[in-house]
UniProtKB/TrEMBL annotation:
It comes from Nitrosomonas nitrosa. Gene3D superfamilies: RelE-like. Keywords: Toxin-antitoxin system. This is Putative toxin RelE2. The keyword Transcription regulation does not apply. InterPro entries: RelE/ParE_toxin, RelE/ParE_toxin_dom_sf, TA_system_RelE_toxin. Pfam families: ParE_toxin (PF05016). The keyword Signal does not apply.
Amino acid sequence: MYQIELMPRAIKDLKDLPKLDVKKIIEKIKVLENGLSGDTKKLTNFSPEYRLRVGNYRVLFEIENHKIIIYRIKHRKEIYLQK
């Protein structure tokens, strides 16, 4: 069982998305509380270390001591761009 924590940037990302997509993303995030699902992948050479796929959106997060820390939630075309 994991505790979910959204970083301020992830909350801002959610506010910028369409309401219907936000609802789907939140439902998928809640599923993470019970363990990693099939739409979750460990990333290589990238930080944060994990991503959750929700349609065309990606949720980037890390796991620390039974806590899932969500850093970013963006469209798949934008999420991996380094600035």
